[in-house]
Please model this.
Amino acid sequence: MSTRLATGGRLLDTDRAVNFTFNGKRLRGHAGDTLASALLANDQMLVGRSFKYHRPRGIVASGAEEPNALVGLGTGARFEPNQRVTTTELFDGLSATSQNHWPSLEFDVGAVNAKLGRFMPAGFYYKMFIHPRPFWKHVYEPFIRHAAGLGKAPKDRDGDRYEHFYAFADVLVIGGGVAGLQAALRAAETGAKVMVLEQTAHWGGRAPVDGGTVDGAPVAEFIEGVIAKLQDMPNVTLRNRCMGAGVYDHGYALGYERITDHAPELDAPRHRLWRIRARQIITATGAIERPLSFAGNDIPGVMLASAVRDYAVNYGVSIGDRTVVVTNNDDAYRTAITLKSLGLEIPVILDARASGGGALADEARALGIRVENGKAISSVKGGKRVTGVAICAQAGEGAVLEEIKCDAVAMSGGWSPVVHLWSHCGGKLIWDADRAHFRPDAAKPPLGATGEGFVIATGAANGAGDLATTLADGDAAGKAAAKAIGNKPKSTAAPQGSASEEAPLMPVWLMPQGAGVNLRMKSWLDYQNDVKVSDVQLAAREGFESVEHAKRYTTLGMATDQGKLSNINGLAILSDALNQPIPQTGTTTFRPPYTPISLAAIGGEARDEIFQPLRKTPIHGWHEDNGAHFEPVGQWRRPYCYPRGEESHRDAVSREINQTRGQLGLLDASTLGKIIVKGPDAGKFLDMLYTNMMSTLKPGRCRYGLMCNENGFLMDDGVVARIDDDTFLCHTTTGGAESIHGHMEDWLQCEWWDWKVYTANVTEQYAQIAVVGPKARTVLEKLTSDDISADGLSFMGWKDLTLAGMPARAYRISFSGELSYEIAVPASYGRALWDALQEAGAEFGVMPYGTEGLHVMRAEKGFIMIGDETDGTVIPQDLNMQWAISKKKDDYLGKRAQERSHMADPKRWKLVGLETLDGSVLPDGAYATAPGRNANGQRETQGRVTSTYHSPTLGRGIAMGLVLDGPDRMGDVIEFPKVDGGIVKAKIVDPIFFDKDGEKQNV
Model:
């Protein structure tokens, strides 16, 4: 049985007892324990059930690579499923519950699946769940949905808070083992700004457990000395409990810090997401021990040899009184020696190598431990815990030579460098046949914008196998990173670490090597997803030769540990089945994050009222004070109308429109997107973005333009003003500012990266007010001495002027069909200008109008609105806007798409105006029916309403819509069914309902 030892436990504070519960059972640990070590100390070997077969699962590792021991932590608002017990630090009051079983962990009905295993091999669901077809909806889908997932989703609102931090470093070191610390020290000594991330609570990695000396002193003293030096350096930031989650282009990295997981009583954020920019990144992420594949290697009590050693040294926990060690390399002998020195029994060390081990093997024999070379485990005895092992020859087929009673098995199949972060951004790997692992190819690192590598792997993550090599490699990495950023590293020697002679590893992918099918069907690769050796071999036989295809067919490496323990063994089994070398099979894709991170950490502070912060114009306060009724427009809240007293919204809109058309109205247009496009190639760039020509626009003039995506569909419109020869200001729709700016940057960065163009979104830097109506010029002339007459500022022109003592820019543009000026001022002047205009326009009864008045007036003039007349499937030709497509240029985004047969089809619906025969308002979005029915029995359609309003100017309902052959059917009457069963008849008319010749705006 597993228990707490009288000695050991270097990380424990044995004077502080910590109480916790597991499945409602009260247990006790010590300060410094992980949940895993505390469970093992209480002999809780069974901690969960596997996903597919519901087999008993115990703890197999001691770190983030753990695939089995996932639990639900906490209760209520602090409940979180699928948390690894190996990385969860124990605290008083911790509550944990096991997952994926019913009715209990010890007795799980789902375990019947294991009895049906031969009928549920890899990929069985692809074959079984398609016949008979009616079963899918009523049998298969409900069953799959019920079985999906491991833990239970939280039901209560998250009770913690989270945050994002931004950091900039010359050198980012990911990994706080001896290699990472030495690299950080060497880089920091050159004056570089260094940041070090370590995912655990402790520095030094495996070195304090494995032992050794550095410059003649214990390695623990070396670690303490380096940490002390780094802490004293003002240019160094050390963050433990902070996992390097991902490495991306341009030196961007993510760090995931668990701040209060170990101490929930602290008044601090629970998790912090670090968003880091670094000039050089050093990955000192260590290596992960591989399991061995033998029958019963998933029974609770079978663990990685390094994990058994960790629990004994770090936490004073014995996994069992009698531990059998099975290995293909020398490192596992350290576990046997450690356990023997603690007074525990090692019945035998089974070394698959016929030639045996090196100096460590000799040391084990000297301690009286039995060592058997060339031997393997045929099978493990037991169900919910180990009771013994059957021994066989590794070179044989599994014939049992001897059975030995034991209560734990420590296995070691070699070590695999943690290459995930190196690979996230394109770093290539090389197969090291001597050590049987993939390691970073230093000649092919992730490349930065200059074509030079910006990631350096070091230590065990780079394939280093002993303390001496690891320290030397870390020292070299720190100096190389410093040199890469232009600093001059000191020519100091690397610390001298101790090293022991080790015999070569022998690759062992299956134990024994000739295991029959009955043994292979019980030899597990992926513990969580129940993938066996036989499953991967079946995938190869069925033609899934690509490693990515085999992964998806078998689900190998698709569990929450992302194959950290299973992938290399699985690749080797697949390679053997395909009769090809492992490098030819290759690896699956490494994707961030390295280990799961909480969704709340990704969201950070963006929750509740700041989940999507409301954007407010400089005049927003005035709108609130004057009773505006707001509507959401993107992230803004814009006034829909300004009702007075008991006035209805329709009456308020009518009043605002009548006042604007008759005298004077003001519109807060500050939300419209404003993007500066600047550079020698700005004109060429805008010619490609807009359907019409922008490069010929003269400074001081404006031009309306349409913007299409590469599929030819309209995505935005707006007025472009040319400021000078190299500078344009592009206006966009309110909801499109950010997306259009991103669209511009996408093309500039990915396609036209050599064009000399700079863009900046200045939407919030300026307030913009539309002064609209017959009295607009009169009011502005009261506030400025600049010439804004029809000749001084003509239609579609702009001019800088001083208005009410404020610097302003006036654009003579109109979206209402009236005499109109849009005045832009720095945002800080916005409210002052609004107040000045209110005062100056008082004699004309000036009043503000909202977005609904804006929409009605533009519809009266037949102007389109993005999002109303467009829906992602509309092209300019549908809107009769061929006039906005230049014939003087060869190309623009969307041009070729618009030449496709479907786009050029004369039967595409076209924009028209619609007038109801009874003067009513058509329902928004209503479809016009046509004779006949389609194959589904539905009424045929011939058009739809895109915009519909009551026009106070005309005293009737007006609408715009897309109709089949619409422009050729003027005067035709078509029918629009209503949801209440009634029908509205409307006549097809010109979409311009008011002032067709534009006389009012050209005053």
In short: The first strand starts at residue 3 and ends at 4. The mean pLDDT is 95.
